[in-house]
Amino acid sequence: IEGIAFNLYSGVPLIEKKSGRRIESVSVSGGGSQSDTICQITADIFNRPVRRIHTHEASGLGAAIIAFIGAGVFPNYSAAIKQMVHYKDTFEPRPQNARLYHELFSRVYTKIYPRLKDLYDEIQKITRYPDI
């Protein structure tokens, strides 16, 4: 679970740089988000609140938001999201865990992940995934 969250977290600087905005919180939905433990670990790794949305089918919700904007029901994404996205729970980062995860990320994960690339390539050759 931590590896998945670290991988997602590694994209934060790029997203913030490209958007020119700081990510203040993380919204989650779907299967993994149904676990309080996974949501808390994610909040601790991101050191940001994690908000679990009420709707399990986020892709359907996203499509509906786009459709309503296209139909002129809402003037923009912010207005549509404010009306259509409802949050079920919020998981606040725990400072002690956030510090520990930051150290693990900077001292271990950022070094180990590139070293595994050749092994990931080998796994892909063996399994032929995603070509299957």
Structure notes:
Helix content is 61%, strand content 9%. Helix 3 (36-46) links the parallel strand 1 and strand 2 (50-53). With 132 residues, it is mainly α. It contains 7 helices and 3 strands, in the order ααβαβααβαα. Helix 3 (36-46) crosses helix 6 and helix 4 (58-70) crosses helix 5 (77-84). The model has no long low-confidence stretch (mean pLDDT 95). The protein is globular. The protein has one domain (2-56, 86-125): Nucleotidyltransferase, domain 5, CATH 3.30.420.
Secondary-structure topology with pairs:
Layout: H1 2-9, H2 12-19, E1 26-28, H3 36-46, E2 50-53, H4 58-70, H5 77-84, E3 87-91, H6 95-115, H7 117-127
Parallel strand pairs: 1-2
Antiparallel strand pairs: 2-3
Helix pairs in contact: 1-3, 3-6, 4-5
Output the CATH topology: Nucleotidyltransferase, domain 5
Taking pLDDT < 50 over at least 5 consecutive residues as the criterion, the unreliable ranges are none
The end-to-end span amounts to 25 Å
Instruction: Using the 3D structure, state the CATH architecture.
Output: 2-Layer Sandwich
Structural class assignment: mainly alpha
Q: What share of the residues does DSSP label as strand, in percent?
A: 5-15%
How many beta-strand runs?
Answer: 3
As laid out across the biggest beta sheet, the strand order is 1-2-3
- Mean pLDDT comes to 95
The gyration radius over C-alpha positions equals 18 Å
Number of helices: 7
